[in-house]
Amino acid sequence: MAQPAETVHGSKPKSGSAWWVEPYLTVLALGLFGVYSLWLVFFQHTGQFQNLLSPFFSPTQSWGIKLLPALWVLWVPLLFRATCYYYRKEIYRGFFHDPMACGIPESRRKFYFGETRFPFIWTNLHRWFWYLALVVLVFLWIDAIKSFIFPSGFGVSLGSVIMLVNVILLSAYSLSCHAFRHLIGGGSQKFSCADGTPTTRYKLWRKVSDWNERHGLFAWVSMFSVWFTDVYIRLLIYGVIHPVRFF
Ligand code: FES
């Protein structure tokens, strides 16, 4: 692995520094996830097993919403993740190698305008995709609740627990979003009341800020939980494994 000649400060990265590991793991994980998603689009036509519905196929299948197969995967969830501030950092580092890490100089290209012009200006639509992602999240919560309802009544299965954990992680990812943090507190110069008592809005902003510090973690675990949930349901559909009902 060739090391960049020097950092923006003119000094070489510390020898033994594994700054390149994260970008390449990102390429591997996002690449495999992308291939899996395309496989679903072109070769799979259902994500439902009894009362379990794959998050890739919600809300199209359970709510009868007619979308082209590609749109099952490629609409809001993909656009929401692709424009996420955290994933943008990872994508720029992993796929474009520019910049590779903090302290590694950017390429000095003549016609590079960052996200201020085409083609990357569209990533500024992230806050609008956040609103749409909330709609998807509502459907996923309903799907998760429905997974606890069996013909005989309320029950708990391994699949329903997996779906519940998945939607909790997706909620953590969505509610720790930078756009949501800005929505809560971005327009305010001052939160406190005249007597210095923190307002409800300030407390909420503090809470979202705490979640926001873990946004990268939520981004990864929620992506893998979506993946895992679909794999589990798909194995049930193919009869490779059998459903486990706790009660
Ligand atoms: Fe990552 Fe909004 S910044 S989802």
Tell me about this structure.
The chain is mainly alpha-helical and 247 residues long. It has one domain. The chain is 53% helix and 3% strand. The strands form two sheets. A two-stranded antiparallel sheet has the order 1-2. Strands 3-4 form a two-stranded antiparallel sheet. A hairpin with a 2-residue loop joins strand 3 and strand 4. The longest helix has 23 residues. Bound molecules: FE2/S2 (inorganic) cluster. FE2/S2 (inorganic) cluster (FES) binds next to helix 4, helix 5 and helix 7.
What share of residues are in beta strands?
Answer: under 5%
Total separate domains: 1
Number of continuous helical runs: 9
Radius of gyration: 21 Å
Determine the fraction of residues in helical runs and give it as a percent range. 40-55%
DSSP summary, beta strand count: 4
Specify the overall morphology. Answer: globular
The hetero compounds bound to this protein are: FE2/S2 (inorganic) cluster
Parts with pLDDT < 50 across at least 5 consecutive residues: 1-12
Topology order in helix (H) and strand (E) letters:
HEEHHHHEEHHHH
For the termini, the CA-CA separation is 54 Å
Indicate the mean pLDDT.
83
What spatial order of strands do you see in the largest sheet? 1-2
